[in-house]
Amino acid sequence: xxxxxxxxxxxxxxxxxxxxxxxxxxxxxxxxxxxxxxxxxxxxxxxxxxxxxxxxxxxxxxxxxxxxxxxxxxxxxxxxxxxxxxxxxxxxxxxxxxxxxxxxxxxxxxxxxxxxxxxxxxxxxxxxxxxxxxxxxxxxxxxxxxxxxxxxxxxxxxxxxxxxxxxxxxxxxxxxxxxxxxxxxx
Length: 186
Prior knowledge:
Layout: H1 14-19, E1 22-25, E2 28-31, H2 41-51, H3 62-80, H4 85-95, E3 98-105, E4 108-115, H5 121-136, E5 141-143, E6 152-154, H6 167-185
Antiparallel strand pairs: 1-2, 3-4, 5-6
Helix pairs in contact: 3-4, 3-5
């Protein structure tokens, strides 16, 4: 049986989806890789790999998890402070374990990722995609505006004004809170 993903926000780019393996639920921190929803650490990793379509290329094992946790910490630090030299060194350290090999075939030019050790594959993939987000629009990488939320998203709205991880969750709570405050004043 396949476990259901317990995270409140999925489907973000791989690097931000990796950050979103930590979230708050009923005021308590949750971690997909540390027993959330009754999953073992490796089951949480398998679920994350599957939700990002990486399970056909990489195995869910302890070594892969250790490397992925390194990437998660590096990305989290880099998002919090893009000038953090330690975070940049961690990102660079993950990137040292892979490279892009250009290919050519009947369909034309392509790329293939190669790794010094396949257990670094998911971590390297997340960090590489994070570099792509930085190149496309670093100001679009955001943390949810709710003080009680720790989730991140990539703002793809036309005018770049998205504030909430989810309008249905955090955005609605903020609107309800403002409404309650206005009605209480009357």
